[in-house]
Write a structure and sequence with these properties.
By secondary structure, the chain is mainly alpha-helical. It contains three helices and no strands. The chain is elongated and about 65 Å long. The termini are far apart.
Length: about 90
């Protein structure tokens, strides 16, 4: 029962616990780095002009767009397998 707390969400996005931890850490480090860049940009507007927006766009692509593509590919594979069973 307790293990479900650690595995339900990662499983819902097609990852193991360890894969999900790795992805979460990679997002965290990217956001921390972009946050520092944005702080510096506030003081020195000529530095890191596009870093924040570029990081947000990249993270969105990794989290939403690519995951949607993976689920679409899984769905297509499931449909193909169902067709193969009918033949």
């Amino acid at each position: 029962m307790l293990s479900k707390l650690f595995t339900d969400h990662p499983s819902s996005v097609g990852e193991t616990y360890w894969q999900h931890m790795g992805m979460a850490f990679s997002f965290a480090f990217a956001m921390i780095g972009a946050g520092f860049a944005c702080l510096l940009h506030g003081f020195f507007p000529f530095l890191f002009v596009k870093t924040g927006s570029r990081t947000i766009t990249g993270l969105h692509d990794r989290m939403v767009t690519n995951r949607s593509r993976l689920h679409q590919a899984d769905d297509a594979a499931d449909r193909q397998q169902a067709v193969n069973w009918q033949i």
